[in-house]
Amino acid sequence: MDQNSERALKVADFLLQIAAVKLSPENPFTWASGIKSPIYCDNRKTLSYPAIREEIKKAFCEIIRAQFPHAEVIAGVATGGIAIGALVAEELNLPFIYVRSEAKKHGLGNQVEGVLHANQKVVVIEDLVSTGKSSLTAVDALREAGANIEGMVAIFTYGFEKATTAFNNANCQLVTLSDYDQLIQQAAQSGYVNNDQLTTLKEWKLNPEAWKL
Fold this sequence. Notes:
It contains seven helices and ten strands. The protein has 213 residues and is α/β, with parallel strands linked by helices. It has a six-stranded mixed sheet, with helices on both faces. Strands 1-4 form a two-stranded antiparallel sheet.
């Protein structure tokens, strides 16, 4: 097993252990978009577990040092990417900024908070990538503010084709600590789901918007 796969399964196990990811094939969740899903993800829970938080921070830093060695600024996407992004910036001794979901409607009307100079090389931190829409809105805001985007690193992605296409079209490299396929593999190996549930989880991934029990 290569280092990336080993890390992905390890992070997946962390998320399952602390119920940051919940799997419920028989009683699916309803996302804000209306999609019925057998998985729900809240990676902000990782912040409440110091040992896991430290492991995730270290994994982010390893990826950034290896793949984005020229990074000059770390940017967190509100809200889930702010805390872990600040921890990563502290570890790398780099400036930190964050991106709101939209510009403030008062004061200076900022969407990017913090000090960003024109053409600085920025790595963006996210907790979760689903369709990629909100993540890439943050990337657009940073570019409009003058950033040179090196790439984005996230804790987890569902791996939707829609997101992959969106990141490719936006010319933004996405690297994640773990993903849906690795997570359900780990869930099966660890006994979080049985074979029938694993089949359901795989079926959902093929067509989430049309999926029904």
